[in-house]
Amino acid sequence: MTAPLNRDQMAWRVAQDIPGGSYVNLGIGMPEMVSNHLPEDRQIIFHCENGILGMGPVAAMGEEDFDLVTAGKKPVTAIAGAAFFDSADSFAMIRGGHLDIAVLGAFQVSAGGDLANWSTGLAGSTPAVGGAMDLAQGARAVFVITEHTTKDGAPKIIPECSYPLTAAGVVTSVFTDLAVIDIGKNGPVVREMVAGLSFDDLQARTGATLTLSPTCKVLKAPALKATQRHPI
Amino acid sequence: MTAPLNRDQMAWRVAQDIPGGSYVNLGIGMPEMVSNHLPEDRQIIFHCENGILGMGPVAAMGEEDFDLVTAGKKPVTAIAGAAFFDSADSFAMIRGGHLDIAVLGAFQVSAGGDLANWSTGLAGSTPAVGGAMDLAQGARAVFVITEHTTKDGAPKIIPECSYPLTAAGVVTSVFTDLAVIDIGKNGPVVREMVAGLSFDDLQARTGATLTLSPTCKVLKAPALKATQRHPI
Amino acid sequence: MSIDKRVPSLEDAVRGIADGAVVAISGFGEAGNPTELVHALIEQGAKDLTVVNNNAGTGRMGLAKLLAAGRVRKVICSFPRSAKSVVFQELYKDGKIELEVVPQGTLAERLRAGGAGIGGFYTPTAAGTPLAEGKETRIIDGRDHVLEFPIRADVALIKADKADPFGNLTYRKAARNFAPAMAMAATLTIVQAREVVGLGDIDPEHVVTPSIFVDRIVEVSQPISEAAALLQQVSR
Amino acid sequence: MSIDKRVPSLEDAVRGIADGAVVAISGFGEAGNPTELVHALIEQGAKDLTVVNNNAGTGRMGLAKLLAAGRVRKVICSFPRSAKSVVFQELYKDGKIELEVVPQGTLAERLRAGGAGIGGFYTPTAAGTPLAEGKETRIIDGRDHVLEFPIRADVALIKADKADPFGNLTYRKAARNFAPAMAMAATLTIVQAREVVGLGDIDPEHVVTPSIFVDRIVEVSQPISEAAALLQQVSR
Asked: Which of D89, D174, D181 faces B67 most closely, judged by CB atoms?
């Protein structure tokens, strides 16, 4: 039987691939959960595009400082050794290639590593991009965390994105509830798959043509309960 | 008899034209002397391109701090309300049009306000520009302080510069030992002349065609002794 | 005559802002919003404004209130869509307001360029996306770049933590965000500071926005916290 | 494993700098020069270097000593000519060194662009002058602009005042100058700090160069003052 990861397990799995000493930006939403699941022996410095390097855990209820919020506007804390700076300097870090990893959500990822995560292109929706294009274009590695398919079962890893692009050819790896997939020169390569899923099963849920890594392993994560979120 | 101003008197004369509250950069050399001759009732904030806003007087002998030097590398002080910043920010101030006035020296000034003050263009000399082009191009007003002619008596205010340009069409006013001349749309206009000099005398020492302002006054300065300079 | 950029009231601070002005307003979400200055601008009455902000107002205060008052013709921002941006979204859906969406880093860099006298710059951000449509592109070092032009503002409304009489500013934590770049990019930079301190009370090493970028300062010692107000609503 | 970028010695700090490297060296005249790092680089032996600095060395120490040792193929700077730049000027007159003169603001901005991922920018500085010869120009808003490209360095040698183990830096007064932009522009940023302090000892509001731009830190608690040495010569 297929045993897909839950959201916290997906976040945990991403966390395992972040080397100690990395400078990392976590996008809004599921990417933010990654910081809850870091191995204890690794120190990672989190960057927040509104001007924080050394972002700490979410602020405890009642101890919020509303001058210290995440890009998602949640009250947060800063670690010893943090730095504050302005938006221009913050994006100089992002765009100058100084972030080791950006962990981002996705609507679609193409076989060539194109990312679509800011707009569904639907008429009538208000366009809004935030820092998504800067992060996707600027970080040295872009990790995507996303369910393998949409709620309707449509594949999200596809030959070409149909939604408006965030950036072309930038995705390094995709971490889904079913697999870990690296975007190689010749397209997506499956590095890990959950137990009970055959390669053909995974391919059937994927739009782009997959390659199975000869060293493909079982995608495993410990049992994890859902992270608590700040109410704002 | 012609009574040309001495260097301190020229600096004094420039100082009289700097409104209170101005942000001003003084170039290396004679322009630096301007700060010694400000009217007591005016507060001016001096910018130094190596990263000081609110530069104070030259440091007293024995009290030098060699982390606090002018663009000419002389030990200096900072006033209360000063700020330090890096070179990129410093030139953002200059190039972004935030300086009210730059006071600069000149080899030549053209009738159209072109400035040549960085290179004589002689073969074999080492080219060196520093911040001269940025200041000339960026400041809202460029005051030139210079002897009216070279040591050999050649005019410095001429129809077109023969030396390599620092910037084109930027000079606002020229303060010489003989006259104060504004660069107008139709060329140089004499605003003040020293006593004992006729307009024809002045024209004879000037390469560009001058216009006499209908409100031209006598250029006067108090008797001033030479400023002491730091030995470094 | 010593330099002193303090003005006695919010009314004095926003005096003379013209109809049709480009107004840059600091803040990211709810952190760093100059709410009192924006409310004073509503009182002052200028209309047909173009507003530059990272967002497009949240809740019902500050920028959202300015939008609701019908004073804004156009918003230039990176992220106008959030659950709390109700005022903007209604106006936008009704076709009552123009929107220019700019990637957040490009927005910050365009403002800095406006302040730093840069005529234009090339960035890979947005290359190959709909936000680069109609823009000049160029391949530099094998990579597609988009040519972006500076944003200059007639007025910046800025929230600072401390200010001295010259106009040197510090900020608090992530409330700094767009304020330094906007202070540089505006012809008239108006600051509400939580505390006005004496000359020399801000260490020259710690100044974030040097006084050259600041024109008027008004002390607002206990500014409204839009975020705290929103939290109270959520908690209710 | 907590992050700690300190290295035990100057020798460790400059380890691995390759022949042919582009080396950005902080300092303006004598303020902010990382003299001990430059001397360690001489010991380390890398040659055929391109050096980026505002000047081209003064006196006989630091950069002047590196030049005298014949390790530098090319200097990119704004002002190589001063009464004290004797070493450079001799090499230049003998045709033993290349020189690229860049206006000081363009030098700072090109380094910042290198650090900030800007592919190129337009500036009015140097338009219509010999320093714009051969460069692409463009009229923007009726004004001539020159297209300038970023400077990226393989290595930056930086002098700071305080550093923490992550690599957050502060500077002293006008010794800050080119260091922040060079730290951004280099692949490997090596810092000599007067004092290494504990994590949290630098207020996050007061950090000038955030740790993300720093790779190695070595403490040099009593750095040579090139200026003081020169003053002694003058006073003698």
From this structure: D174
Is B162 within the bounds of a domain?
yes
Using a CB-CB cut-off of 8 Å, the residues of chain A touching C183 are none
| Chains touching B (3+ CB pairs < 8 Å) | C, D
Nearest chain C residue to B83 by CA distance is C204
Per CATH, the number for D10-120+152-231 is: 3.40.1080.10
What gap in Å lies between CA A46 and CA B219, rounded to an integer?
64
Tell me: pLDDT of A37 over 70: yes
Residue A115 belongs to domain spanning:
7-33+87-218
| DSSP letter (8 states) at residue A57 | E
CATH of the domain at B206: 3.40.1080.10
Is 50 exceeded by the pLDDT of residue C92?
Answer: yes
Among B136, B90, B129, B163, residue whose Cα is nearest residue D99: B129
pLDDT reported for residue C236: 47
Q: CB neighbours (10 Å) of residue D56?
A: 29
Q: Which of A47, A57, A34, A59 is nearest to C231 (CA)?
A: A59
Residue in the block written with tokens 């100690």: A20
* d(CA C1, nearest CA chain A) in Å: 33
Number of domains in chain B: 1
- Band of pLDDT at residue A232, cut at 50, 70 and 90: very low
Mean pLDDT, residues A91-99: 98
Q: Which amino acid is at C162?
A: K
The confidence band for D30, taking pLDDT boundaries of 50, 70 and 90, is confident
C-beta atoms of A53 and D205 within 8 A: no
CA distance B144 to D173: 29
Touch of A by B (3+ CB pairs closer than 8 Å): no
Radius of gyration, CA atoms only, chain B: 17
Residue A1: the pLDDT is 54
Q: Which of D165, D183, D167, D228 is nearest to D25 (CA)?
A: D183
Helix H or strand E encompassing B50: none
Q: How many residues does chain B have?
A: 232
A39-69 pLDDT, tens digit per residue, is 999 999 999 999 999 999 989 988 999 999 9
Q: State whether residue A28 sits within 8 Å of chain D by CB.
A: no
Q: What is the mean pLDDT of chain D?
A: 95
Segment A162-184 mean pLDDT: 97
Tell me whether residue A52 is in a domain. no
Backbone dihedral region for residue A27 (phi beyond 0: left; psi -120 to 50: alpha; all else: beta): beta
B64 in catalytic set: no
For residue D235, name the pLDDT band (cuts at 50, 70, 90): low
Q: Mutate which of C112, C118, C162, C177 to test chain D, going by most D C-beta atoms within 10 A?
A: C118
> What are the structure tokens assigned to A226, written together?
């859902």
Q: A81 and D211 in contact by Cβ < 8 A?
A: yes
Identity of the residue in B73, B137, B138 whose CB atom sits nearest the CB atom of D30: B73
Chain D residue numbers with beta carbons less than 8 Å from the beta carbon of B94 are 105
User: Is 70 exceeded by the pLDDT of residue C233?
Assistant: no
Minimal CA–CA distance to D226: which of D99, D77, D36? D36
CB contact under 8 A, A83 and D213: no
User: Is residue B61, in this structure, part of any structural domain at all?
Assistant: no
Q: What is the average per-residue pLDDT within D17-26?
A: 98
Q: What is the pTM of this model?
A: 0.97
Contact (CB<8Å) D173/B67: yes
Nearest to B189 by CA among B153, B222, B164, B216: B216
- pLDDT category, C229, cuts 50, 70, 90? confident
Q: Alpha-carbon torsion A69, A74, A75, A76, what sign?
A: negative
Q: What is the ipTM of this complex?
A: 0.96
pLDDT attached to residue B124: 75
Q: Which tokens hold the place of D221? A: 């608690």
Chain D residues touching A55 at Cβ < 8 A:
none
Is residue B27 domain-resident? yes
- Using a pLDDT cut of 70, give the percent of chain C over it: 97
